[in-house]
Amino acid sequence: MALYNGPLVTIERFILEQERQFPDATGELSNLLYDFALGAKIVAAAIRRAGLVDILGSAGATNVQGEDQKKLDVLANETLKNVMGHTGRVCVMASEEDEELIPVPPGWPQGKYAVLFDPLDGSSNIDVNAAVGTIFSIYRRNSMEGQGTLADVLQAGARQVAAGYVMYGSSVMLVYTAGQGVHGFTLDPTVGEFLLSHENLRIPEVGMYYSVNESNFARWNRGTQKAVRGFHGDLPERIEGKNSRYIGSLVADFHRNLIAGGIFMYPADTKNVNGKLRLTYEANPMAFIVEHAGGAATDGRRRILDIQPEALHQRTALVIGSIRDVEFVAQIMAETEAEG
Ligand code: AHM
Ligand code: MG
């Protein structure tokens, strides 16, 4: 095994050190972030065995091993609910996998945070062994006491106190911000620890890549089509052409653009008239992260973080990434709309 060649900073030590800057901090938010890190390790371990688990599952028709054969997105969801719900730090949860709010299990104390998550985003990629992710978003509760309410999770994204994602890729990375920079940790599977590997990530102002599902081209409005043609290199006076990269896994597409610079778009189209991605547990946490890394996120008209959510599973168009590229798309969309 290669030796580490720098100071070893575990996610625990890093979060603690950040928290020391705030004398009033109770440590609850730090603990919530470790809770997500623990959940991520459990999910990562399951994903690593995914192919094997599928083989065991299909071979064992008479062998009722219900839990082992659960689909990974269900497993990820149950894992996060279990990890987050039994800590006393949370008053309510919401997940892409649950239609309704998820209360804290009976008998467990109510905490001051509301958490939302997409337990396994891009899960169709599991079957082909491509990267998937977990996305999370944390708010301080609005309600005063007792069980958390819908209003606790339907806060505008700008009110998030922390957000992050875990990418299960060629290595497992956890990236988060609690408002003091965006930091990335890589899981060392030999010791089971997330170690600081990317401190204070900044997204380049102009990116190398654009990421969009171009099979939807004919269903986009003219503004979106024109912006993407700009990325093809058809508007050299406005923007340089870019390289195309699209995995179809938001976390992986976003992560690449965060590191290398780029823009990800899931615009509205005639089939997905409000876009495809969900505002509260997909767009908002990513928007919070990108802004803290110097980037931007819009639905084409509005800053994502300013949108007041009205429903838990509300969809939104999303244009997110390097600031000048996002501005370019927003301008082209506005100009085209004004032309009528
Ligand atoms: P999911 O939440 O059902 O996994 O869907 C979200 C995923 C994102 O990860 C990805 O950006 C997008 O759907 C890809 O959609 P498409 O296959 O239409 O390009
Ligand atoms: Mg999702």
Question: Can you offer a commentary on this structure?
Answer:
By secondary structure, the chain is of the alpha+beta class. It folds into 2 domains: 11-198, Fructose-1,6-Bisphosphatase, subunit A, domain 1 (Fructose-1,6-Bisphosphatase, Chain A, domain 1), CATH 3.30.540; 209-339, D-Maltodextrin-Binding Protein, domain 2. Helices cover 33% and strands 21% of the residues. It starts with 10 loop residues before the first helix and ends with a helix. Bound molecules: 2,5-anhydro-1,6-di-O-phosphono-D-mannitol (AHM) and magnesium ion.
What key attributes describe this structure?
340 residues, alpha+beta, Fructose-1,6-Bisphosphatase, Chain A, domain 1, D-Maltodextrin-Binding Protein, domain 2, 2 domains, 8-stranded mixed sheet, 9 helices, 15 strands, binds 2,5-anhydro-1,6-di-O-phosphono-D-mannitol, binds magnesium ion
Q: What layout of secondary structure does this protein have?
A:
Elements: H1 11-19, H2 28-48, H3 50-59, H4 72-85, E1 90-95, E2 102-103, E3 113-121, E4 132-140, H5 150-153, E5 162-168, E6 172-177, E7 182-188, E8 193-198, E9 209-211, H6 222-232, E10 243-244, H7 250-260, E11 262-266, E12 277-278, H8 279-292, E13 296-298, E14 315-316, E15 318-321, H9 323-339
Parallel strand pairs: 1-3, 9-10, 9-11
Antiparallel strand pairs: 1-2, 3-4, 4-5, 5-6, 6-7, 7-8, 11-15, 12-14, 13-15
The protein binds 2,5-anhydro-1,6-di-O-phosphono-D-mannitol (AHM) and magnesium ion.
2,5-anhydro-1,6-di-O-phosphono-D-mannitol (AHM) binds at residues 96, 118, 121-123, 213, 248-250, 266, 276.
